[in-house]
Amino acid sequence: MVIFAVCTWQVVTRGPLLTADERLGRRIRDGALPEGAAEFLADAGGMLVGPVLLAALTTGQWFTARRHGDAPYWWALPLTTGVAMALVPLLVSLAKVLTDRPGPPSMGGSGFFPSGHAATACVAFGACVLLLRRAVASRYRQWCLVAACAVFNGAVGYGLVRRGYHWPLDVAASWALGVLLLWAAVTVARGLLRRRGGGAA
């Protein structure tokens, strides 16, 4: 929350952090990563990738719970992560209207802060990791999932900046917002389970 607040404050006030942000953005756009690869990574943060995978995973868990008679409150975490995913476009759109940040020169216009693609990827794939961790017994493999999710989100953010769709600060703020939403989803799910006498989320 603090990171998101600081990023927003800098954007609204045109603070000194924006100078370094725009300088870094220009360096990334001049980087060696081919534009085709950058476009692929940027598209991976769209609504047709992470949210669809999350919906498929939730549906699979529902069928598994019905078939094997799993704990009756299996739905707590899928429900709260689903709500977090639904909140992403609403919160991002609100922030875009309130900050009205100009985009990179290649895009023009305004309303680029924060990045919807970066926030979508962060919440969707982060939620998938949270749902999958119960099926992965090894703590080492659980951390491997977390690391893979972090690397993937980093790649999506890099692709967005490399293609000139966003400034780095737009992406960083979206990651902060995404982590906050995932934390809230886990916290609420645990509260639901405690109230109903279920297991850990």
From TrEMBL:
Coiled coil: none
Keyword set includes RNA-binding: no
Keywords (A to Z) from UniProt: Membrane, Transmembrane, Transmembrane helix
Ranges of residues in domain Phosphatidic acid phosphatase type 2/haloperoxidase: 82-189
Annotated TM spans: 72-92, 112-132, 144-161, 173-193
Record-linked InterPro entries: PAP2/HPO, PAP2/HPO_sf
Cross-referenced Pfam families: PAP2
Name of the protein this chain belongs to: Phosphatidic acid phosphatase type 2/haloperoxidase domain-containing protein
Organism (species): Streptomyces gougerotii
Lineage summary: Bacteria, Bacillati, Actinomycetota, Actinomycetes, Kitasatosporales
